[in-house]
Structures are given as structure tokens and as C-alpha cells.
Amino acid sequence: MLSLSDLPTLNAALNGTSAILLSLGYYFIRQKEIEAHKRCMLAAVTTSTLFLISYLTYHLPGRFGSVHFMRTGWIRVVYFSILTSHTILAVVIVPLVLIALSRAWKAQFDRHRRIARWTFPLWLYVSLTGVIIYWMLYHQ
């Protein structure tokens, strides 16, 4: 059974899984393997949704809240640069994913492709930087 203190590790695992699924989905669409692409992208949406639920559960008022980055020097600047870009893009990516998903669902593939070109790299960045932030907070 998971405890609340296990959620940051779960969150990092979900982010890492999303990054792998996104990369596989990109590979499959480049190979014109539409069904494999679809499965990967739906799985990425699922893991990202589970991440969001877990993240919000962990950060609910009265729970754990924030973990402070205690290191000093140049690494602090690096950490907060990554954290800031991650946080901003994490907010931006949600509607982009929903729009891309909606367009694919409606078989509006030209419109889906146009937004997916922006959504994919941003979503991948958010997933990967989520793992990096976890690593910097809990393993340094």
C-alpha cells in the first residue's frame, strides 16, 4: 500500500512513463502505425491524468505541501530555471493535450497534426523535467 510519502516517487514514475509513451507514440506515427500511435497516446494521457491526481493529492492543504530545494550556488539557479519553465508549461500543456485529443477523436487529423507539432515537444519537456525536478529534490 502506498503512503502519502511515496507519492513523489510515484509521480516521477508516472512522468517518466508518460515520456516513454510519448516517444513511442511519436515513433509509431512516423512509421505510420496509427493504432500503435493511438494506444501510446491514450496511455500517455492516462498516465499524465494519474500523475495529476497523485500530485494534487500530495499537495492538498494539510498534507505535505512543498519540499524546499536546499542546495546553494549555481545548481539553485539551474533548479529554479527548470522548475519555472516546467510549471508554466505544465499549465499550458493541459488545454493543448485536450485540443489535440479532441481533434483526433473527431478525425480532424490535419487540425490534430497542426497542434500536435507543438503539443508533443512541450508535453515531453514537462514529463522529462518532472523527473529531473524529482531527482534534484529527493536524490541530491
Please provide a brief summary of the model:
With 140 residues, this protein is mainly alpha-helical. It is built from 4 helices and no strands.
SS element count, helices = 4
Shape verdict: elongated
Q: Considering DSSP H and I runs of 4 or more, what fraction of the residues is helical? A: over 70%
- Unreliable segments (pLDDT under 50, ≥5 consecutive)? none
Specify Rg, calculated over alpha carbons.
Answer: 16 Å
Q: Order of SSEs, N→C?
A: HHHH
Class computed from helices, strands and strand pairing: mainly alpha
Question: How many distinct folded domains?
Answer: 1
Roughly what fraction of the amino acids lie in strands?
A: under 5%
| N-C termini distance | 26 Å
Count of extended strands:
0
Question: Biggest β-sheet: count, sense, barrel?
Answer: none
What is the mean pLDDT? 94
